[in-house]
Amino acid sequence: MNVWIAVLATGLGCYALKLGGLVVPQRVLDDPRVRRFADLVPVALLTALIAVQALAQNGSLELDAPRLAGLGAAVAALLLRAPFLVVLVAAAGVTAALRLV
Amino acid sequence: MTVTESDVEAARRRSAAMRDGLGVGLGVGVSGLAFGAAAVAAGLSVAQACALSLVAFTGASQFALVGVIGGGGALVTGTLGAVLLGGRNALYGLRLADLLRVRGLRRLVCAHVVIDETTAVATAQPDRASARIGFATTAVSLYLAWNLSTLLGALGAARVGDPAAFGLDALGPAAFLALLWPRLAAGGTERRVAAAAAVIAVAATPLLPAGVPIMLAAAAALPVLLRSGRGARTDAKERP
């Protein structure tokens, strides 16, 4: 199998899955349980993503102090009700500053 | 026509959605540098790296495929694994179908950009109009930034400056956390699902290939499917 075929097949397969969720009939989504599940799935997946991005590197758990401190700064900014972009700058800024020292 | 207070409020929500979208799109988009560099290091040509970002446009699957190619694995299994990792986007589609309500050609175009970032921004907005604006702003800015930075990374730009030196690896999780924050603050069920999802994903990380633990964490939302339909909807307000 040629790498080009793998690239295109991955693109097609990923697109099919993305479309698959969007074309589920409204009738199915009107079921309150499905609606609640669909509503909570992004919460579950995005929290999982946050946890893995914060605590893992290349498939193994690894505590990176500057990155964790950056996320701590983001939490502090959120608790202080800072605007979204301030939260991002605090996270990247603290992480970058600690990597300098 | 007079400008009412609700018009002002609606305009404020729309610009907040655009700010969220641009922040995520440009902030997360630069990690395309790392992808472009990883792809070329794994043996893909610059054109192949760019094509993968253009047609797959979902980071986890892209990293998975180049990881297998770099490790000398079989292309068929590499492709299958990469596609399976895209499964979480189908779950996002379930939520976005109702939120975006797009049909026909627009649905076919929107489908290509149903990913973590667009879902995070769209679902964080307080109403449907700003959810659509947030989705579109994230989609356009991230598509441009991700593909441009893939090209630069593939051409060797990642060697010039390490994104980690600028703390950019903290941007993704910080952005997702900021977008989820209001929902976690508002709902007891949300907090329980989030905590369970984090535990599942972190516990599975040393055992399973990258990306799979995240898919697995969707199981944290399953209990609401099993509960009776009647109580399910009021559940959101159970704890203020």
UniProtKB/TrEMBL annotation, chain A:
Keywords: Membrane, Transmembrane, Transmembrane helix. The keyword Transmembrane helix applies. The chain crosses the membrane at residues 40-56, 68-98. InterPro entries: Brnchd-chn_aa_trnsp_AzlD. This is AzlD domain-containing protein. It comes from Actinomadura rubrobrunea.
From TrEMBL, chain B:
Pfam families: AzlC. It is a multi-pass membrane protein. InterPro entries: Brnchd-chn_aa_trnsp_permease. The keyword Transport applies. Keywords: Cell membrane, Membrane, Transmembrane, Transmembrane helix, Transport. The chain crosses the membrane at residues 21-43, 63-85, 133-158, 164-181, 193-226. It comes from the Bacteria. GO terms for biological process: L-valine transmembrane transport. Its main location: membrane. PANTHER family: INNER MEMBRANE PROTEIN YGAZ. This is Branched-chain amino acid ABC transporter permease.
